[in-house]
Amino acid sequence: MNRGTFSLFAALAPGAVLFATEVAPIDAAHALPTRKHQGIPSIAVSKVNGRMWSTFYADPMGGENHLNYCVLTTSSDDGRTWKEVLYADPDGTGLTRAFDPEVWISPDGVLRWTWAERTADPGICLTNAWNGGSGQHTDVLVGVELDAEREPSPPYPPCRRLLKGVMMCKPTVVASGDWVYPLCEWFAAPSTRFYATRDGRSFRYLGGVVVPKKWRLFDEGQFVERRDGAWRVLLRNKNGLCESTSTDKGLTWPEAAASNLGHPSARLFFTRLPSGNLLLVKHGRVGEALKERKELRAFVSTDDGLSWKGGLLIDGRVNVSYPDGDVDRNGRIVIVYDRERRADREVLFARFTEKDATAGDDKAPGVELRRVISRSPN
């Protein structure tokens, strides 16, 4: 691999910039048996041939540090078997880590695999990967465009620097046709910032949300466009969950306020389904603010988020977290999440229908739970 460098403080928008990181096939140094940590997954499913894609990040040390790299895995048999096909590692044992990846199939049918890269200050402990609180906002969103229907093969397309910040959640296609990317510059004001694009390469900044300073952490913001045209964003904070609503298409936002949905300080999944209803995947019941990352449940709203039905139990164990999802070509909801990132190092998925989620029936025929994408062999 070409392990070049770049200026972390270069202007990143508008316009994408070719970047020195290259993706490569999984090798012995990045294979599953070498890992001491993996998780923070994302999932996407092709509407054309049903091919499934998942990504997560990992490392050989155990935890969040300068050795983190991202993995791309795929299934061509409806999730029965998975093959790790690519990894993205900016500089091997160097100071730059790759983390918080996402996979998303955009309206043009392209699989867009993105991740964040951060360069550590050589004067600090390398295992202290979270330098955002010190004001060192070196995070940059990097992406590569792949064929959503076929396993990647060389020559691989170039990676591109896209925007400054971290994108922990999928873009949203809004009524105007724009694809809106939610990026975060943690601990800044505003921290969650929205960028519009039609091609995933050139971007237009819209506006951002300020989280009260006493609550700031890792925003991991994701939003839906309501039927009345307003945008509602849910944001992680130190206390759990807060939210804000923009009535002018993301240009201006009130300061975030506490949400009544209830959640620990962790990512959740929030999206609009093809039916027009909303899907929410969170820890515990709606309104229940659990402190532990346990009891992942799926809820459906038929009234644009005013109330929630169901509560299908995806996984009731502890240390299950970071749900992400998609809808497959048969209309089934697919949710990915991790469990025990340092011990069992499981990346799992569940599959069910909107009807199952609305009824809260995890025993319904066809519901699939705890399906394995990746698991530690140790």
Strand and helix map with partners:
Layout: E1 17-18, E2 23-24, E3 37-45, E4 52-59, E5 69-75, E6 83-88, E7 96-105, E8 110-119, E9 140-147, E10 160-164, E11 172-173, E12 179-184, E13 192-197, E14 204-209, E15 222-225, E16 231-237, E17 240-246, E18 257-258, E19 269-272, E20 278-283, E21 294-301, E22 309-318, E23 320-327, E24 333-339, E25 346-352, H1 354-359, E26 368-374
Amino- and carboxy-terminal Cα gap: 29 Å
Which fold does the CATH topology of the domain at 16-168 refer to? Neuraminidase
Number of helices: 1
The CATH class of the domain at 16-168 turns out to be: Mainly Beta
User: Quick one: how many beta strands?
Assistant: 26
Are there runs of 5+ residues with pLDDT below 50, and where? 1-11, 131-135
**Largest sheet, described in full?**
5 strands, antiparallel
Instruction: Write down the overall geometry.
Output: globular
CATH architecture of the domain at 16-168: 6 Propeller
- Helical amount: under 10%
Radius of gyration: 19 Å
Order of helices and strands: EEEEEEEEEEEEEEEEEEEEEEEEEHE
Major sheet: order of its strands? Answer: 1-10-9-8-7
